[in-house]
Design a protein that fits this description.
elongated, DNA-binding, about 5% strand, disordered N terminus, homodimer, about 170 residues
Chain lengths: ~170, ~170
DNA sequence: TATTGTTATACTCTATAACTATA
DNA sequence: TATAGTTATAGAGTATAACAATA
């Protein structure tokens, strides 16, 4: 914090490599952690993605689920089937378009997502508590920049901007 | 950088939540990026994990692959079958234990992993280039702390310390 | 014609359980 | 007995393709 950073182009090959290694490690442990939390609730990532979208957008058609979740309509049929069997969601016909199905959260589904959101906040607090605010700021700033860069040269093409769920 | 951080306990619920949201977004785009890179090489995550272990440990038994990669021996059989079909690895009998198989990289497998490692460094450099060194330091420091915390209260039990591959 | 959701089919990754051949 | 790897089987998630009902 004392050093003047007049060595701002000093990124070495090795430094870059170990930085990416650490980023991947962070990615890995986070993914394992998220998956573990979902498994404890009896949810897979794919099914949780569907619930997440329903929780934040309200009732939507399977077509929209397909677009937002990022899997084919065929797979949405399977995921909604499973979630319906477990009483997380219900299907009903769209009032204006008789081809389409409207998928909604049941009471159990809503309750599950509310609880999940509480636990999310709780976990977030424990995870970031005690970090010096300035370090947290820098972490968020760098994270944002990395996100932009990865998005940037990760194609800039077929990345659907609609897909913004933190679960998938 | 100028502010004295005498507000070091000021983490709000909202601040924590949005921090975790950003972390998950970073995790997500990184995972997508990694998967895309693997797909371009015709590799899945699971198969790449096996190649990664072989690249870093040399020929190992399927039992060891099972332990390190973190899937059942049955699945190692399947993954090695597929990698053998595609000429990435070969199987031979273990010289001292006729029950066991020794799995090794072929020339193609070695070449693939060398190229992957080059690309890894290349990507790392482009990803982190231009960041002020002090910001990068802070990012790595906070990342390390988050990794420790997630590992810490993500059970502290069934996390096998052998499983340290950045791919799985 | 185009779109919505489904049936049919297939591939990958994952797991458990039973079996074999060796230790 | 215990271990290494396999066969057998099952389930989840993914995909494409063909089809029915509707727009």
């Amino acid at each position: 914090m004392e050093r003047l950073d007049d060595e701002r182009c000093s990124l070495s090959r090795d430094g870059a490599r170990s930085a990416l290694e650490r980023l991947l490690e962070l990615t890995e442990v986070t993914a394992v952690f998220v998956k573990r939390g979902l498994t404890e609730r009896g949810l897979s990532r794919a099914r949780a993605s569907v619930l997440w979208v329903l929780h934040h957008r309200g009732p939507v058609t399977q077509r929209e689920l397909s677009d937002v979740v990022g899997v084919t309509p065929r797979n949405i049929t399977g995921l909604v089937d499973a979630l319906e069997t477990d009483d997380y969601v219900t299907r009903r016909r769209h009032p204006n378009d008789r081809r389409a199905m409207l998928v909604s959260l049941t009471a159990k589904g809503t309750e599950t997502m509310n609880k999940a959101q509480e636990d999310f906040s709780e976990n977030a607090f424990h995870l970031f508590f005690g970090l010096p605010p300035q370090e947290l700021d820098t972490f968020l700033k760098v994270s944002g920049r990395l996100i932009d860069r990865v998005r940037g040269y990760a194609g800039a093409c077929h990345d659907d901007p609609e897909r913004t769920s933190p679960l998938s």
